[in-house]
Design brief:
heterodimer; A: alpha+beta; 5-stranded mixed sheet; about 25% strand; B: alpha/beta; FAD/NAD(P)-binding domain; 4-stranded parallel sheet; 7 helices; about 30% strand; electron transfer activity (chain A); 2 iron, 2 sulfur cluster binding (chain A)
């Protein structure tokens, strides 16, 4: 069984990228975006993945069952800008086989 | 004018450790930081979070790491300009530099070491189209002088500790305090949340949730804000001051205009040698720099700081001979007159 999954990411310029993400490296969506350099360094993952900055906010456009929001993520989104009903922090979405086919759009830079 | 050997911009872990390494070479350091306290991200963003990859510390809290770095550098008596942002740099004819902060404090140094991390922390501004027009005319992102709000009508927005704490504090000073947050829940220390609840019950704080400030009213200065609850029409809350408190986010800021080569929001340096930038005498160390294979790790910043100091020494004293000495062998002589050294063995006959 392949350990890779496919993810569709729309960057901040509206360009769609279909990328392959490993599920065996404990990576999250924010790190996938950084590894493919889909957002400029220094504009995403500023806090390093602690749900403390919202620079990795994204809109989830597919119907995947996502991990439940922690209080930290929920509170961060309560203070973030450009928030929509389908907003999540990329750093809180782990790359697992259940995320195969995930479609997300990066929120504007803050 | 503050004078020093090495002017360090950024008082995070890398900047603080630079003081120690420079001190071993008898070079004096001064640090500038936009935040009011040293420690950078470690003290501002995650002081209570553990770090596991500091050599010899299986686990250390970011706040504790900051304290230990300050303790380690103390003997070399660093100077601090805190709460000010390095704004401009002027190279002098003799090759030294004058760096001026946003508050006009001037620093004269032989070497400039930029250890600025992700940049200086700036308040995050809410997306209100005319907000800029009212900055310092009733809109303040940071509360500097609480007396400014005496007997005034104040609207605070935000849901974190600073929004809660200032709402509590200003409720004794301002004539009216309104706290607006997008959610019914607040994230903060239990004390602060309970205090706000108590003051709300007493009618000393007006709470509007879940709601957002959508617009600012006024001609020359703020006279009110337009507040909207979800699914309802906006209404106006009279206000002399609107204080949005949405935390801080780092921006490279003025350093980006210093003529340094920038790539990926970071400063390009020569990592084959000494972490010098394209401006001789200006170095960039820690998270603020970039080079092939760069890793933004505290431990890498320590290494970069150490090599940078050796290069700075050679630049300041081109003709002076020096070889690196182990602290275990040479001990450490502080600028405060202290001396640390390994205990000497005795030579004594045993009868």
């Amino acid at each position: 069984m392949s350990l890779d999954i496919n993810i569709k990411i729309t960057d901040r310029n509206g360009v769609i990228h279909e990328v392959v993400a490993p599920t065996d490296m404990a990576m999250n969506l924010m790190e996938i975006v950084r590894s493919y350099e889909l957002a400029e360094e220094g504009t995403i993952g500023i806090c390093g993945g602690m749900a403390m900055c919202a620079s990795c906010q994204c809109y989830v456009n597919s119907e995947h069952k996502l991990p439940e929001m922690t209080d930290d993520e929920d509170a961060m989104l309560a203070e973030a800008f450009h928030v929509q009903d389908n907003s999540r922090l990329g750093c809180q979405i782990q790359m697992t086989s259940e995320m195969d086919g995930l479609e997300v759009e990066l929120a504007p830079e803050i | 004018m503050i004078t020093t050997d090495i002017l360090i911009i950024g008082a995070g872990p890398t900047g603080l450790f630079t003081v120690f390494e420079a001190g071993l070479l008898k070079l004096k350091c001064h640090l500038i930081d936009a935040l009011p306290q040293p420690g950078g991200q470690c003290s501002e963003i995650y002081p209570k979070k553990p770090i596991y990859d500091i050599p010899a510390y299986p686990e250390i809290l970011a706040g504790d790491l900051t304290h230990k770095l300050i303790e380690q550098s103390k003997q070399f008596k660093p100077g601090f300009t805190l709460g000010e942002r390095a704004e401009t740099i002027d190279k002098q004819e003799d090759g030294t530099f004058i760096v001026t902060t946003n508050k006009g404090t001037k620093h004269h140094a032989k070497i400039v070491a930029i250890a600025g991390g992700l940049g200086s922390f700036e308040p995050r501004k809410p997306l209100i189209s005319n907000i800029q027009k009212f900055e310092d005319k009733g809109v303040e992102y940071i509360i500097k002088e609480p007396e400014l709000y005496r007997d005034k009508k104040v609207v605070i927005s935000g849901g974190g500790d600073s929004a809660l704490d200032w709402a509590v504090f200003l409720s004794n000073i301002a004539s009216e305090v309104t706290l607006i947050h997008r959610r019914n829940e607040f994230r903060g220390a239990l004390d602060s949340v309970e205090k706000v609840q108590e003051l709300k019950n007493l009618g000393k704080i007006r709470l509007i949730t879940p709601a957002e400030v959508k617009g600012i009213l006024g001609t020359d200065k703020v006279t009110g804000v337009a507040v909207q609850k979800e699914g309802e029409d906006a209404f106006i809350v009279d206000a002399d001051h609107f204080i949005p408190l949405f935390g801080l986010s780092p921006k490279l800021g003025p350093i980006g205009n210093w003529g340094l080569e920038i790539e990926k929001n970071a400063i390009k340096v020569n990592n084959a040698l000494d972490y010098q930038t394209n401006i001789p005498g200006v170095y960039a160390i820690g998270d603020v720099n970039t080079y092939p294979g760069k890793l933004k790790l505290i431990l890498c910043g320590f290494h970069e700081a150490t090599l940078m100091c050796q290069s700075a020494y050679k630049r300041i004293f081109p003709d002076k001979k020096y070889v690196m000495k182990y602290t275990t062998v040479g001990g450490v002589d502080g600028f405060d007159g202290t001396r640390k050294e390994a205990p000497k063995a005795v030579v004594k006959a045993i009868q």
